[in-house]
Amino acid sequence: MSHKKLLTILVPTFNRLGFLVRLLSSLESELCGLEADVHLVIGDNGSNDGTAEFVKNFLAKNPFVSSFRLESNIGPDRIFLELFSRVKTHYFWIISDDDMPRQGLIGKLLQKLYTIRPTLLYLESYWAPNIYEISMPRLQELELESFEMLDYARKINIRTTFVSSWVVNSLSMRSRGVGLVQIEEGLGTSLIQLGWILPLLCRASVLIASKEPCVFATLGNSGGYQQLRTFGVNYPKFVQESTRGNRKLELALITTYLYSYLPRVIYSSRRGATVFQGMQSERHALLNLIPALYRYPVFWITCFPLLLMPRPWLRFFHSALGYFRSAI
Predict the structure, then answer these.
(1) pTM of whole model > 0.90?
(2) Rg (Cα) of the chain, in Å, rounded?
(3) How far apart are alpha carbons 180 and 84 in whole angstroms?
C-alpha cells in the first residue's frame, strides 16, 4: 500500500518570476526527504514572463510536484479556487509567490500535523519590504498555542485574510459541508479564502497558532483590487454571514480590526496613499463603510472621525488613536 501524503502546498503565481524562483528554490530545499508526505502544486495564472518555461524545468527535476497553467489571468479568487479543487490530502496550505516559509519550518510542521491534527493552524508572519534580507535563524522548534474560539478570533481578526499563514484541515471542511459550491459564493470579493477559514473557525475543535514568526511576507506587494471595499465592506459582510447567530464571535473578529487595521487603511486613503501597491480606484468608497459597519459602536469612535475630519487634523487623530491602542 502506498503512503498517503498529508499536506498539499499550493503556489499561485502571475508574472512574478523572480519571486517564484526564490520561493520554489526554498521549497525544493525544505522538502528534500519529505516528498512522500507533501504534494506541491503550482498554479500559473497565465504568466507571460518566462514562468511557464521555468516551471517546466522545475517539474523535470522534482517529480513530486505538479502544475497547471491557465491561458489568461482569471484573478486571485478564481486561481485560489482552481488550486483548492486539486487538494486530495488531509491538509492544504496556500503560499503566495512573494512569501516564504521560514527555514526549517516544513519538517516541524508535518510532525505537528501528524500528532495534533488541528482544524486550523495559523502561522505567525513577519512582514518586510524585502523578505530576502530578513536575518532570522533556522527554526529549531515549532512552538504552538491552543486557543478557545473567541480568544483565537481576537488574536487573528483581519489576519484571517492573509492566505499564506493558514494550514487548513480539508477533511474537517468536508465533514462540515464546506465544499466548492459554498466557497464559490465568495468569488469577486478578493477574500475567497474566508470561505474556508471562517466556517472552520466558527465550528472548529482544535485551533492552533504558532508562538513565533514562521512565514516571511512581502510588505505592500498585493494589489489589483479595491482596498476599502475589500477590507471595509467585504470583510465585515463575510464575518456577519459566517457567524450568524454568534454575536460574540462576530464582535471578537470585528472589534480588534476596527481598532487596529481599518483606521490605518482609512487614514492612508484620505492622505492619497494606499497600504498596498496597485490598488484600484474607489469613488465614494469611504462612504460605503458606513452601511457596512454602522452596527459596531467602536466604528464611530475609531473610524468615523477619520472619514469626516479635515485633512490637517488626520495625522493628530491617527497618532492619538495609536497611543490609545498601545495604552490598552
Answers:
(1) yes
(2) 20
(3) 8
